[in-house]
Design brief:
Length: 201
């Protein structure tokens, strides 16, 4: 009798444990059943997850590549900036080198002229003209251009400085006479030409 009761209890315990042991399988089966009812084929979720992981890996690789390219571009820009700064420093330091080189022969000519003890007026004039030619050549080589307006030329406040307004038959605000020529370095005004201008009639 006792053995029969133990056998029934054992069978009941085994029957009660069976649903618990197979609970995970039941949940998996239920999820698969729901996916099947929703029209999702078996293995589709795993495939989608693998696709997302592959896409994430590709994005991370692309990001690393872009970061590397950015760092290289940043380094190149820094090198270019540093070289440009060095070039500007050198340009400031040696900007006068070309002009100084052209002016040395002019100084040599003047010093040689002063060493001559007995000079005639003709010799002095000839020496001065030769020195002036050297100086003019030095100016032209370094793009130092004269500002020498002709009489009657329209007064240009960017190049001319009128110090007096005088009566004239010319049109008003035109150059009457040049008192001192001006100079430009390329397109930049170094010194304006000092002129007199025609007064309004």
């Amino acid at each position: 009798m006792q053995d029969q009761e133990n056998q029934e209890l054992s069978q009941q315990g085994s029957g009660a444990a069976q649903p618990g042991a197979n609970g995970a399988d039941a949940a998996t089966a239920a999820a698969a059943n729901e996916a099947a009812q929703a029209g999702v084929p078996p293995g589709a979720e795993t495939s989608a997850q693998s696709g997302l992981e592959a896409q994430l890996s590709a994005t991370e690789a692309k990001l690393a590549e872009m970061h590397d390219a950015f760092m290289r571009a940043k380094a190149d820009a820094e090198n270019i900036r540093r070289r440009a700064q060095e070039d500007v420093t050198k340009a400031h330091k040696f900007a006068i080198e070309s002009f100084a080189e052209a002016m040395v022969p002019v100084r040599d000519s003047l010093e040689m002229a002063l060493k001559v003890e007995t000079q005639t007026v003709e010799a002095i004039r000839e020496g001065v003209e030769m020195t002036l030619k050297q100086l003019t050549a030095a100016f032209e080589k370094n793009r130092l251009v004269e500002v020498m307006p002709a009489a009657g030329e329209k007064l240009d406040p960017n190049k001319h400085q009128a110090v007096a307004v005088v009566p004239s038959e010319q049109e008003a605000n035109t150059v009457v006479a040049v008192l001192q020529k001006g100079y430009m370095i390329a397109d930049r005004l170094l010194r304006p030409a000092i002129v007199t201008a025609a007064a309004p009639k």
